Amino acid sequence: MTVSTGRARIAASVLDADLGNLANALRRIDAAGADRVHLDVMDGHFVPNLTFGAKTIRHLRRRTELPFDAHLMISEPSRSIDQFLDAGCDSVTIHVEIEEPIEPTLRAIRDAGRAAGLSLRPGTPMSALEPYAPLLDIVMIMTVEPGFGGQSFMGDVLAAKAQPARELLRHKTYGGEVHVDGGINRETAEQAGGTGVDVLVVGSALFVRGRNIGREVRLIRALADEGFQYGMNGGEPPVPRDRLVSVGALPKHLARRMADEVERGGVPVIMLRGDGRINPDGVRDYDLLVPASAAGIVHERHDRDLEWAQAEAEAWRTTFPAGDPAQA
Ligand code: DX5
Ligand code: ZN
């Protein structure tokens, strides 16, 4: 089964940018560090709004190196799919609710070596995508009614569909992507990220007058990651990366020896007197603290040494003061 990367990427939608100055919008998206550009194509029929088509995308293509995700909210994508592929779209996502055959268009996208996606309106069940599952690289979950930017995020829709979407992509050992489109902003990013989606489409939140797009992208990405870490941890606060954990407690002379040994392998060790046992010399055992992220490797490398040191400590305790290294 495919699993989430846990590192949500941001696809910036230009829908709410100044459409008279798209080149500038792309320049800003690029400078902001967004991962993708999400291009909303509307035909005034599938949705009650019109935007731009393949020709515009072709001209935008040379303005940035960022991947282009085309989101076609059009009734008859089969008529123009070749143009969108020629225009340089890296992925093309069409809607499952259209009335023409879907499979040939998905095949055309894949035959061109691009990623093929299906999107579904909030009210469409995920089961509608099942017949096409083997042809899908992307499942795009709409969390607003398609057609306009700036609507409110439907969190319940995402919560119900995120896992089924992932399962639809189980044929992809790698590279399958779940996208969420609609209403993602600093208020909703954590919740969206918590569902493990791979790509967050962000439109109106980026194009607020006076807003720093780069900061917004970083904020939304960070919040989504935070949500993912909490989600992975059953809703509990995740372990901070820099937390220190004890890999053992030893009398001072043995603790120092082990610390030197572990540090030779590049892992920093802090020796602290914790609430360990009090030794015959009146001094407590020292905890050997290492960064939580390195604890696994320390155990792997040093468990035998640690066992030896424990045995040594026991021997020292029973023979003290004869075995006191301070008197040796
Ligand atoms: C809506 C479009 C979205 C839109 C998202 O039909 O598919 O991609 O740009 O805009 P926000 O982020 O404002 O919901
Ligand atoms: Zn979209």
How would you characterize this protein structure?
- This protein has 328 residues and is an alpha/beta fold.
- The chain folds into 2 domains: 9-231, TIM Barrel; 244-327, no CATH class.
- Helices cover 35% and strands 20% of the residues.
- The protein has 9 helices and 11 strands.
- The strands form 2 sheets. It has an 8-stranded parallel β-barrel, surrounded by 4 helices. The protein has a 3-stranded antiparallel beta sheet with strand order 9-11-10.
- Strand 3 (68-73), helix 3 and strand 4 (91-95) form a beta-alpha-beta unit.
- Helix 2 (54-61) runs parallel beside helix 3, helix 3 (77-86) packs parallel to helix 4 and helix 8 (252-264) packs antiparallel against helix 9.
- Bound molecules: D-xylitol-5-phosphate and zinc ion.
The H/E string reads EHEHEHEHEEHEHEHEHEEH
Q: How would you describe the oligomerization state of the chains in this entry?
A: single chain
Q: Could you say which small molecules are bound to this protein? A: D-xylitol-5-phosphate, zinc ion
What is the domain tally? 2
Radius of gyration: 28 Å
Shape: elongated
In CATH, the homologous superfamily of the largest domain goes by the name Aldolase class I
Estimate what percentage of residues fall within beta strands: 15-25%
Strand numbers in spatial order across the main sheet: 1-2-3-4-5-6-7-8
Mean pLDDT: 92
Give the CATH topology of the largest domain: TIM Barrel
Catalogue the unreliable spans: none
Provide the CATH architecture of the largest domain: Alpha-Beta Barrel
CATH class of the largest domain: Alpha Beta
Helical coverage, percent range: 25-40%
Distance between the amino and carboxyl termini: 60 Å
Count of alpha and pi helical runs:
9
- Helix and strand content put the structural class at alpha/beta
Question: The biggest beta sheet, please?
Answer: 8 strands, parallel, barrel
DSSP E strands, number: 11
